[in-house]
Amino acid sequence: MSLLIFVIRRLIYTVPLLVCAVTVIFILVHSAPGNPIDYIIGEAGADSELVARLRAEMGLDQPMLVQLWRYVLQVLSGNLGYSLVSSAPVLDLILERFPATLLLMASQYTLSAVIGVLLGVLAARRPNSALDTTLTLLSLTSFSLPIFWLGQMMILAFGYHLDWFPIQGMSNLREGYTGWRYALDVAYHMVLPVVTLTIFNLGLIMRLTRASMLQVVGQDFVKVAYAKGHSERTVLLHHALRNALLPVVTVVGLEIPGLIAGAVLAETVFAWPGLGRLTFDAISARDYPLLMGMFIFISFFVIVANLLVDIIYGLLDPRIRYQ
Amino acid sequence: MSMSVPVTTSPPLTPGRRAWRRLRRQKAAVFGMSVTAVFLFTAIFAPWLAPYGLLDIGDSFVPPSPEHWLGTDSLGSDVLSNIIYGARTSLIVGVFAMATSSVIGITLGSIAGYFGGWVDDALMRLTELFQILPQFFLAIVIVALFGSSIWNIVLVIGILAWPVTARLIRAEFLTLKRRDFVEAARSLGMSDRDIIIREILPNALPPIIVNGTLQISGAILLETSLAFLGLGDPNIMSWGTMLHNAQEFFNRAWWMAAFPGFALFLATLSLNLIGDALNDVLNPKR
Q1: ipTM of the complex
Q2: Do the chains contact at A152 and B250, CB–CB below 8 Å?
Q3: Are residues A7 and A44 located together in one domain of the fold?
Q4: Does residue A50 share a domain with residue A199?
Q5: Per residue in A96-113, is it b (16+ CB within 10 Å) or e — as a string?
Q6: Rounded to whole angstroms, how far apart are CA atoms B139 and B60?
Q7: Does A141 contact B at CB distance below 8 Å?
Q8: Taking CB atoms and an 8 Å limit, are B138 and A24 in contact across chains?
Q9: Entry pTM
């Protein structure tokens, strides 16, 4: 029964969440100082004819609930409005930049998950040993680091000072590489941002894994595994870790919005051509439709990502039959 | 950082005093508390400590030197003085945002946990909604729409951060409300309001204290992140604004980025160290 029905049910559940996100934006725009039109056409737009047309188009003379309903329908049909600066559809602007952000997030996430889980297991092996204390301190340090500052310091050290890695952008535009040379060039440009993000996210995953392992290793099935004569390595990595990962997956699912926020800040530092740079430019230009569209798009992304996390959780935990 | 030590009974050790003793034994906690003390001192006495005023402008891009220990920025103002004034901003943001979110979170969490039923259901759905919304982007939109004055930023961070507190308090209430002392209070005819405030709440506070220190560091990081993206209060010196300005002048003036960021890192690290140690001391169950 199962997976399909579960997925469909959760998909239906995402619609009201998305509607809530859209409603939040609607309420904000309408309670902000000034006229909603000001946020659509910007401060320069004093053209009264344009204002009148927009007013009619947006249905500002209609009751609030009607306006909200129209706005929700509009967003659900994929229309997030138009950028004030480039007047391109907001959704197009976002989708154009999103792959770069996704690439960065997926790479750093894979890295920090693997390293974080391994270090967490290592720390939990001998609780309160010197190694454990050191790793715990390092993990605290890692998530106390302001990510944008960490990025700046990476650029100073490995970019300007040692000149090992490129510090800006996603590829060398002057060379105009194609094919695998291009892929290699992108990978080369990715090193610093990915390392920065990994250092930042590693700590949390390690800490969670450690705490979760400590709870699991005391349980009977782990003792049984030892009693059967399995090596410590097998018991820890196969029996204990499999169970210890469940809470880690849950919390990491809750952290997805934080991951995107971190990526956006890091992208700004490294001039990575993803959503981060787009956000930064939208803020500088006070491009309200773009900022709001970004919020709605990322809400949608987070909701879908949480759905995926739930599915992974179900796959990892045989006790859960999605019901 | 003063832990409130109850003075109602002298020896044997009160729980507060015992916690304080255990805290003092952890090196990391002592480091955290010392740095936080320096941070507090700097923030409070900023105008007396800063070698230059915020409006004193000299040569731009002076490297660290005897006149300007940490150099000057692109406008020619002293980086050290700016960091000292920035401590004030961070302290204000951290403390007031934490207070805002605690008031909301404690109120809603207590009501949800104590009364249960549909009230609980409704409030928990609300916290879930708040937790799934991408808070950082919500903060960006709100601050962009409503203006980036420091109090707006405090309010936004406070309003976004309450769900964690509410969930913690609710969980405590769910177990505490079944205890005998609550039954006793009820049979004595105490009102619900008094039971919540006088009987249960004091016992539910330990996880909130831990969470509070983490929320202060979280709020400081969020404020500096917003300022770094260009959404800082233009009338106030913030470490995030300093890093925002440094971004352009990286190759010319490394000190513009290195020092304010290090101050920020030290502040959040020491608050997190305190939170971590408090967690060990106040919630030994793990």
Answers
A1: 0.84
A2: yes
A3: yes
A4: no
A5: ebbebbebbbebbbebbb
A6: 33
A7: yes
A8: yes
A9: 0.86
